[in-house]
Amino acid sequence: MLTVDDLTASYGPVTALDGVSFEAPRGEITAVLGANGAGKTTLLRTVSGLIRPTRGTARLGEHDLTSVPTERMAELGLAHVPEGRGVITELTVEENLRLGALGRGRRGPADLDRAYALFPILAERRGRSAHVLSGGERQMLVIARALLAAPSVLLLDEPSLGLAPRIVAQIFDLLRSLVESDGLTVLLVEQNARSALSIADRGVVLNLGRVVVRDTAAALAGDDALRHAYLGF
Ligand code: ATP
After folding, report:
1. What's the gap in Å between 37 CA and the centre of ligand 1?
2. ipTM entry
3. Which of 2, 59, 116, 197 has the most Cβ atoms closer than 10 angstroms to its Cβ?
4. CA pair distance 42, 11, nearest whole angstrom
């Protein structure tokens, strides 16, 4: 379980996260929703130690992630896939995947076969430069690369951005099955609230850095006033 408690973070005078608290249970997808500037990306960056909070904690088991050096995050089982699908275009698909396995430490050899079984398109493209991949394939590559570190918690920032609905559905279905088969804990930041809630177990809605509401995905999707005010559908 990932427990976020009173998390507060600022960029100079701008308070981007203000006393955010929620729990992301193990083996569930927790969607983090809200408009542009709500603080979603800042939340992920603070949980993964890229930004130091001014107050509050993010705990994974007995570890307070906010005081763990960033380079130890993978060892603790945390993987962060930032927005923007950063692949190394000079390397092949397989070389990019192998980089993900560097975070495994001593937890066994990289399971490239499993990555290829999850994302058959990456197996087809394994020897090609990552430069040739489509947006959807790049998104699959960054997720597959993160999974190679064998995380217990996956932080995903806007995986659906700019992708065709069919590709989004394919990626989200896969996330759902990973959560069910591996007990992976996912924190899914999305502007596309409708799609995110269709696969999430629960959701947290942020506005101007604060939690507006936390509830089950079904309750959030069924709340017309909330959807119109904050979720854009
Ligand atoms: P988006 O979907 O646009 O990324 P978001 O919900 O992820 O939105 P954040 O990117 O976390 O929101 O931004 C929260 C607030 O912090 C906004 O007011 C934003 O302008 C501000 N902010 C974000 N990054 C910085 C930065 N590097 N320097 C200063 N202010 C920032």
Report:
1. 5
2. 0.95
3. 197
4. 10
Q: How far is the centre of ligand 1, averaged over its atoms, from the C-alpha of 7 (Å)?
A: 15
Domains along the chain with CATH numbers: 2-77+151-231 (3.40.50.300), 86-150 (no CATH)
Indicate the DSSP class of residue 72: G
How many of the other CB atoms lie within 10 Å of CB of 127?
Answer: 9
Residue from 65, 46, 25, 64 nearest 206 by CA: 46
How high is the pLDDT of residue 205? Answer: 98
Q: Encoding tokens for residue 99?
A: 């980089």
Going along the chain, which residue ranges are E strands? 2-11, 14-24, 29-33, 55-60, 63-64, 78-81, 153-157, 185-189, 202-207, 210-216
User: Model confidence over 92-119: pLDDT tens digits?
Assistant: 999 999 888 776 655 556 688 889 999 9
Choice from 10, 41, 158, 231 to test ligand 1 binding pocket (greatest atom count within 8 A of CB):
41
Pick out the chain residues at pLDDT < 70. Answer: 103-110
Give the pLDDT confidence of 48-85 residue by residue, as tens digits.
999 999 999 999 988 999 988 887 888 899 999 998 88
